[in-house]
Amino acid sequence: MKSRGLVVHDSKSPLVPYEFERRDLRPHDVGLDILFSGICHSDIHQAREEWGPSIFPMVPGHEIVGIVTSVGSEVTKFVVGERIGVGVFIDSCRTCTHCKRGLQQYCTEGMTGTYNALDRDGENALGGYSNTFVINEDYAVHVPTNLSLAGVAPLLCAGITLYSPLKHWKTHIGTRVGVMGLGGLGHMGVKFAKALGAQVTVFSHSAIKENDALAMGADSFVCTTESSILKKHSSSFDLILNTVSASLDIAPYLNLLDLDGTLVAIGLPTRPYSVPVGTLLGARRSVAGSMIGGIPEMQEMLDFCGRHAIVSDVEVISANYANVAYDRTVASDVKYRFVIDGSTF
Ligand code: NAP
Ligand code: ZN
Ligand code: ZN
């Protein structure tokens, strides 16, 4: 299958147009036309090798939404013409205890990434900044028909990545949730936490985002450019989700957790956390981590979005704007996710 997209050839080069072939459909494969493809900060980290060596040529993109155009002979999950979503992984071992529990993201052999990975045949996996895709039916999800497709694309990574920890840490009516960073991930955290009945506070270093945060449902907004402001909020949160992409001192945020509170690492900066142990001991606080979500939970999240009319706030762009979009994302200047129109590749 012919595909047109964007590629990076090495960590110092920009995205440029690229033509390539996708594999022919196998019996359990689904072919799709990509309608929208989100730009996740993880795409930038990997294209620029901020997490260590990457695999090039790289076609980034793991927030994919499209329409099924063809199905393999054994496919039962999808029909031609249906809406379909693909997220951060395209395969896993299927047999380990985590895969069997539907937690493919924690596959003990390692999930197979949508890009910057070799697929299980050893081929370079090329991601979603492109106009077509081929995926095994078990690793794709159904998309509710009432949601705008541009706003759905970011749900496939940013959405599930915030939904999963909110559910795992049992967010309910009245849970006091703090969201650090109002970017692609963070703004989905606000929407989900609110829909689950939580009291939501946004911690942001961008004062200009206050009105947007409140409009998304946040109950309060704390601008963190003056760090002493955090002291006012000590011991007043059950759950803090750190979505910040840059290295931050988390010590002042740990202090915001009440007894038994948890700070969940979600953003993946290069520098390790420095954790003051006394702050943990002082109120049985925890630091944890969470990575995307498995296929059953992705479907649950999309169905939840359908029922609650939740989509991402997006700036739809043409493929030729993607390099500018990268720079604007790094500068925290996006409202609140760039999504590439698949017809412009
Ligand atoms: P994003 O849209 O760029 O948002 C990150 C936000 O962090 C920014 O909007 C900004 O929020 C804040 N921020 C950035 N630089 C900062 C700085 N120097 N100081 C303080 N705050 C800063 O990125 P994203 O796509 O949401 O991704 C966020 C992180 O999560 C990335 O590291 C990404 O790789 C990671 N990620 C993890 C998973 C997972 O499974 N755990 C999945 C996807 C992505 P304010 O302007 O509001 O301060
Ligand atoms: Zn992502
Ligand atoms: Zn596995």
Structural account:
- The chain is an alpha/beta fold.
- The protein folds into 2 domains: 2-157 and 312-344, Quinone Oxidoreductase, Chain A, domain 1, CATH 3.90.180.10; 159-289, NAD(P)-binding Rossmann-like Domain (Rossmann fold), CATH 3.40.50.720.
- The protein has helices spanning 41-47, 97-100, 149-152, 158-168, 184-195, 210-216, 251-254, 277-281, 295-308, 322-330; strands spanning 2-7, 16-21, 29-38, 64-71, 83-86, 89-91, 112-113, 132-136, 141-142, 176-180, 199-204, 220-223, 237-242, 257-265, 286-289, 314-317, 337-341.
- The strands form 4 sheets. Strands 3, 4, 5, 8, 9, 16 and 17 form a 7-stranded mixed β-sheet that branches.
- Helix 7 (251-254) links the parallel strand 13 (237-242) and strand 14.
- Helix 4 crosses helix 5 and helix 4 crosses helix 9.
- The longest helix has 14 residues, at 295-308.
- The radius of gyration is 20 Å and the shape is globular.
- The model has no long low-confidence stretch (mean pLDDT 97).
- Bound molecules: NADP nicotinamide-adenine-dinucleotide phosphate and zinc ion (ZN) (2 copies).
- Residues 40, 42, 62, 88, 157 line the site of one zinc ion (ZN).
- One zinc ion binds at residues 40, 42, 62, 88, 157.
